Amino acid sequence: MTLQIETIPCLSDNYAYLVHDPVSGETVVVDVPEAAPILDALDSKGWTANQVLLTHHHFDHVEGLPELLKHHAAKVVGATADAHRLPPLDIAVAEGDTVSIGIETGHVIDVSGHTVGHIAFHFPESSVAFTADSLMALGCGRVFEGTMPQMWESLSKLASLPPQTTICSGHEYTQTNARFALTIDPDNPALISRVGAIETARSKGQPTVPSVLSDELATNPFLRAADPAIQAHLNMTGADPADVFAEIRLRKDRF
Ligand code: ZN
Ligand code: FE
Fold it and tell me: How far does the centroid of ligand 2 lie from the alpha carbon of residue 173, in Å?
């Protein structure tokens, strides 16, 4: 890990991230829910943002961009597929394209489902991925625009990253996600102990993100649709994991 990551709480429950390369001095902002906390964090670090990576078009991920750009002459990177509804982009990217911070390369992954055109950024050298509203701590984004099979495919791509990958997601929804996860996977000891740690962190006002992919693989019900205990609990033993995922996502929508 050479990149430094700062987690910035924004609005009521959003997160933006600062990614700083101490070698080149470059700083990247991932998503801009609102400008003030990001500007404050940049100021207190003495960093200048030279790039903004946008994950998707929802207002709670882009609203602060114009104000941020008044103070930092950053290049804006976002999905080609969403160029018509994102703020003006300097660089449009799609899956297979790369971005760079100093000498580190980030890979663009299409994680459509929550929106069509949602992208994630994976930096293998520093072992970190910015997933916003696709894979979240103990959860995943609601499927607003894409299809359930598409969201399952997107989550499966993220699940196949190296397990030590740090997952930087877009919201503090973890406590609700934890209560829901226990209804799907009640006997999972790793989940039970993680829920305890989440309750403790939140009672102290601490963020529950970033998380680590290995913990998500062990406890996040949306990644565990192939797990025999979960399938049995849902009366779906032997079902296609994509269908089990869809059932879990529908139950979360009603939770
Ligand atoms: Zn969103
Ligand atoms: Fe969001």
Answer: 10
CATH number for 4-169 (one of 3.40.190.80, 3.40.50.150, 3.50.50.60, 3.60.15.10): it is: 3.60.15.10
pLDDT string in tens for the chain (255-residue length): 589 999 999 999 999 999 999 999 999 999 999 999 999 999 999 999 999 999 999 999 999 999 999 999 999 999 999 999 999 999 999 999 999 999 999 999 999 999 999 999 999 999 999 999 999 999 999 999 999 999 999 999 999 999 999 999 999 999 999 999 999 999 999 999 999 999 999 999 999 999 999 999 999 999 999 999 999 999 999 999 999 999 999 999 999
**What separation in Å is there between the alpha carbon of 33 and the centre of ligand 2?**
9
Contacts 24+ apart (CB under 8 A), 9-15: 9/37, 9/172, 9/207, 10/34, 10/37, 10/38, 10/64, 11/60, 13/171, 13/172, 13/173, 14/60, 14/61, 14/170, 14/171, 14/172, 15/168, 15/169, 15/170, 15/171, 15/172, 15/207, 15/209
Q: Which ligand is nearest to the CA of 172?
A: 2
